Structure formats: C-alpha cells, structure tokens
Amino acid sequence: MNEQAPINLDYSTSEDAPSAREQEVLSVVLDLMVEEGDGFSMASVARRAACSKETLYRWYGDRDGLLTATVQWQASKVVMPKLDDANLSLETFSETLKAFASSWLTVLTGDVSIALNRLAVSHAGNNKSSLGRIVLENGPYAMRTRLLPIFLKGQKSGLINVRGDEAFRLFFGLVIADAQIRALLGDENKPSQNDIKQFAQSAVEQFLTLCGSKI
Amino acid sequence: MNEQAPINLDYSTSEDAPSAREQEVLSVVLDLMVEEGDGFSMASVARRAACSKETLYRWYGDRDGLLTATVQWQASKVVMPKLDDANLSLETFSETLKAFASSWLTVLTGDVSIALNRLAVSHAGNNKSSLGRIVLENGPYAMRTRLLPIFLKGQKSGLINVRGDEAFRLFFGLVIADAQIRALLGDENKPSQNDIKQFAQSAVEQFLTLCGSKI
DNA sequence: CTTGCGTAGTACCGTACGGTACGGTTCTGC
DNA sequence: GCAGAACCGTACCGTACGGTACTACGCAAG
Questions:
Q1: Quick check: A135 and B185 CB within 8 A?
Q2: Chain B partners of A176 at a C-beta cutoff of 8 Å?
Q3: CATH says A79-211 is which class?
Q4: Which tens digit of pLDDT belongs to each residue from A153-177?
Q5: Residue B160 φ then ψ, to 5°
Q6: Which nt sits closest to A38, CA to C1'?
Q7: Average pLDDT of chain A?
Q8: Could you tell me if A22 and A72 are in contact, meaning their C-beta atoms sit under 8 angstroms apart?
Q9: How far is it, in rounded angstroms, from Cα B63 to Cα B129?
Q10: What residues of chain B lie within 8 A of the CB of A132, using their CB?
Q11: Which own/partner contact pairs does B26-29 have at CB distance under 8 Å and 24+ positions apart?
Q12: What confidence tens digit (pLDDT) does each residue in B52-111 have?
C-alpha cells in the first residue's frame, strides 16, 4: 500500500558507515540544523568542520547530497526494539508498548528530530530533493514497520483485536497526538520527561481498552 | 498556560478586512505557496497579481509582512462551528463532534493547509518571522479554544468525564493521528473523503468510549 | 629527497532574490 | 480639467550563497 517506487535507501549496503571524519562533518551539519534550521550555508559547514568546501562537494556532490547523508546517518542510529515472542503476557505486552511509546515521544520532541523533520517538511514542498520522502521512510513508515510485527504478536496471543494498519494509526494518535506538530510549529511548551511517561502510560492503557480483544 | 506574550493578531480589529484588490494579491500568494512552497519570489507574486513590487512593499513592508497577511487572511476565513447548548443529547453531541472532526481532517489534509503549515514549520526554525507562532495560534490553539467549550458542555451534561486539556489531546490524536505529519512530509497517499468520514466516525466513537462518563 | 595524493583555505564566478528608484499611466477628488 | 496620489512595469543595486578553481601544505610511498 505504501511501499511504492523504493527510493535509494542503501546506506546500509553500499557505503556502509561513514568514516570518523565524515561523521564529524555530518555531526556538524546536525548541529547547524538544530541551531539555524535549513538556513545554514555550505561555507558554515566547512568552517565549523574545519574542512574545505571542495571536500564537501567531492564527498557529497551537492548540498542536497550532504543533507541526505546526514538524514540517513541519523536514521541509522535509531535502534530497533525487540520483543521476545515467547512469554507474551498482557503485562509484558503492555510494558513493551509503554517503553516504546515513551522512547518514541522523547525522540520526536527532541531537538534533532524537530530540526530534521522541519527540514524534511520544508523540502517536501519543493519538488526535487527527496528529503521529505527519506524522512517519511525513516520516520512514520519505519515506526509502522517496527510496530506491525509487535501488534501481530499481540493479536496472535489474543491480546488485541484489530487490523494492523488501524492499530498503528490508533497507537500513533494516542501516543503522539498533537505533540509533534506543536513542536514543529515552535511551541516552547515541550512535554517534560514526566509528562511523556504519563502520556505513554495512559496512551497504552487507552489503546488496550479500545482494541483489547473484545469484539 | 499557553497564552504568553500575546502576539499581534489584530487583523480583526485594526485593518478589518483586506480590500478586494488586496485579496487578489493574497490569493495569488496562497496559490504560489501551494505550487512552489516557500520558494516563490516577490517578483513572481507581482507578476501573477499584475501589480508592481513597489506596491507589495508599500502595502506589506517586506516579504514576511506579506506572508503574515496571507496567513492571517486565510485563518480569518475559517468559521466557528456552533453547538446549541439546549438540547444536548448524546446523539447531538456525537454528531457535532463527528461533523467537526470530518471538517477538521478535510481542512488539515487540504492543499492550502499543507502549504501553510509547511511554511510555518520551516519558518519556526529560523528565529525572526513569527509565522510559526501565528499558525500555532490559529491552528492547534484555535481548535483547542473552539473545542473546549464543546467538551465543557458535554461534561456538564454528563456525557463525558475528563479534564478539558486531556480531552483535547485525546480528540486530536484520535481524529488527526498521523494524517497531518504524513501529508506535510509529502505522502501522496492522502485520505479520500470517504476515509475521512470513516476516520471521523470511529474517532468519535473511540473518544466517547474512552471518556464517556464511566469513571 | 622526491613525487604524488588528499585536503585546508581562499579567491572567484554566476545567479537568484530582496528591496529600491523612477518613468509613465490610471484613478480620484475638487 | 487639473493636481495629486496610487500604481504598473521595469531597470537597477547589494548581498548571499551554491558551486568551482587554484594554491599551499602535510604525509605516505618509493
């Protein structure tokens, strides 16, 4: 349904991991993104990374290549949570979901994620520059891909009863709600770590209430 | 909690409504925003609106002023739904919420809203340019302000049982879920009008299930 | 020591755009 | 019909930035 025209996401196969020096550069880009949004110049990157613009262009081709490499590097740092499918009690299931929800909210309202998503949103308007696509693939879609098997296991264990895609939509809504868009729009009123824990907990409880096998 | 340092939102008091000619200009800006995102130039506005750049600068001061005027004009076009507090049956309440949810989803996934929110998000990164703030005030906050009295009425009639701010967060999450962020990131898979009706209906049902007075 | 490669630093070019200036034209009030 | 303001169209300026060219230096191999 969603996987159409697979984009080049072969950062895990082609050029494996960026070298230490490259990571320095990409890290500078991330910092600049957080500080100045999309406005930073190639010159500022070169200056702060103590490299020449020529090197940037040799390594990444153009500005968009640099941004793409940065986004993909950042995405590659997010690790996949595991759920051992053996002992799937309601307790385990619920706790796993809560932990995931908490971590997800923390990431999404973090500075780096905000900067990255701002960049992707603004680039999604202008055609060319597939940054929006890439963030979409590594953001919502990736989370969906990660959560679906978890939901599936819960379903097979009779803990929930709902179609997978509906489960994802519901879970996203209950957990994230308006937190992300408000952060993107510059709302300074960010949820504290305590708020997040609270949100995650009640979201999971609501989730289980709504689709905890009863139909 | 949210209303701090009230920004200049006096488009309703100072210069009332833009003239017909001004509306032509602002409409051109909206069109260009939908077509090209933030990338459009003042020259392109002048060209398509068949006016001179000098006029644009005389009227709006600078580019940011033009954008601000456009955003505020668009926001002023959204009308406030009413709920007659007299006959507040569960049926009426539920139908009102469903209609609101449906309309909300339609607006948020529409081209104009997407373009506007993209603009606001990208400007929220760069300080100066209070566009993010303005969209935040006229988007999520305005919806919150609109919904709170409705929830309050429902609460007083014993139909729901939840704190107002929690009700808003919950309602937002159930109705909007990942639809807006996906649209902003350029997901072409927009919900059809039928999907929207479906989403709105089940969202309201879920909302009433979760906080329909039972605690 | 010498040769050659990779890179830092910098100067440079072309372009795009925000903002201004100005001549010519239309509209408005008297 | 006349004066003044508003406005259109366009030419122009300054700047900022993406991208390229070139020089100098460090360093490793032979």
A1: yes
A2: 173, 178
A3: mainly alpha
A4: 998 888 998 888 899 999 999 999 9
A5: -130, 165
A6: D17
A7: 85
A8: no
A9: 10
A10: 185-186
A11: B26/B69, B26/B70, B26/B73, B26/B74, B29/B66, B29/B67, B29/B70
A12: 999 999 999 999 999 999 998 988 877 766 777 666 889 999 999 999 999 999 999 999
User: What is the rounded (10 degree) CA torsion for A42, A46, A47, A49?
Assistant: 130
Q: CA-CA distance, B196 to B199, in Å (whole number)?
A: 5
- Residue ranges, comma separated, of all CATH 1.10.10.60 domains in chain B are 10-76
The domain B10-76: what is its CATH number? 1.10.10.60
Residue A102 distance to chain B (closest CA, Å): 16
Cα–Cα nearest to B187, from A158, A63, A121, A73: A121
Where does chain A hold its CATH 1.10.10.60 domain(s)?
A: 14-76
- Answer for A193: CB within 7 Å of strand C: no
Dist CA B209 CA B206 (whole Å): 5
Give tens-digit pLDDT for B172-196: 999 999 999 999 999 999 999 999 9
The domain A14-76 belongs to what CATH superfamily?
Homeodomain-like (1.10.10.60)
Residue B49 near residue B111 (C-beta atoms within 8 A):
no
